[in-house]
Amino acid sequence: MSAGGSVTVGLAEKTVFFKVEGKGTFQSSVGLKEAVQKMIQKGYREFVVDLEDCELMDSTFMGTLAGAALRLRELGQGGLTVIRANERSRELLTGLGLDQIFRVVVGAGSAEASPVSTIAATGSASEEDRRQAALEAHEALVRASSANAVKFRDVIEFLKREGGGGGSGGES
User: Fold this and answer.
1) Is residue 22 within 8 Å of 4, Cβ to Cβ?
2) What are 42's strand-pairing partners?
3) With b meaning 16 or more CB within 10 Å and e meaning fewer, what string describes 30-48?
4) Of the chain's two ends, which shows fewer C-beta atoms within 10 Å, N or C?
5) Distance of CA 86 to the CA centre of its chain
């Protein structure tokens, strides 16, 4: 595991498992988003995120989870479940209303899967890729709950200015 954290991707039958170790932050969000997109393209519709070893999550990481859940909702199939969340993680997710778009299970469940790959926290994403992922993640938080609009308005405006343009218009 790197100093920041990592996300391991595994498969079990028709379910994709992500195990977060250390910190779930903007640094691993690009890789997480790309892995979700790739698995959706391959036909996977059930995603499980294991937070047992997750120390903390930032808003970009949580927004990336929200974007994945919203994408599955748009497809009308499958869903995302967070398992083994500690009390702090549960508070963060429910505080942003994310429990309304995916299941959050505290301290239960099992995530046994064949490892496929690991998404390192540092990743090889460009600064522009990280900025775009952060923008899309924060926009997903607002789509997940309108109450988040005021919380992340300044972040979204900053990311738009830094990118020199408008909203993402893409999928999260």
Assistant:
1) yes
2) none
3) bbbbebbeebbeeebbbbb
4) N
5) 17
What proportion of the chain, given as a percentage, has pLDDT over 70? Answer: 83
Instruction: Give, in degrees to the nearest 5, the angle at Cα 118 between 73 and 171.
Output: 30
Structure tokens at 143: 């789509």
**What architecture (CATH level 2) is domain 5-163?**
2-Layer Sandwich (3.30)
Residue 101 has φ and ψ, to the nearest 5°, of -115, -10
Report which of 60, 74, 73, 70 is spatially closest to residue 31, judged by C-alpha positions. Answer: 60
pTM: 0.85
Q: What would the pLDDT profile of 56-69 be if each residue is shown by its tens digit?
A: 999 999 999 999 99
Burial readout 62-73 (b: 16 or more C-beta within 10 A, e: otherwise): bbbbbbbbbbbb
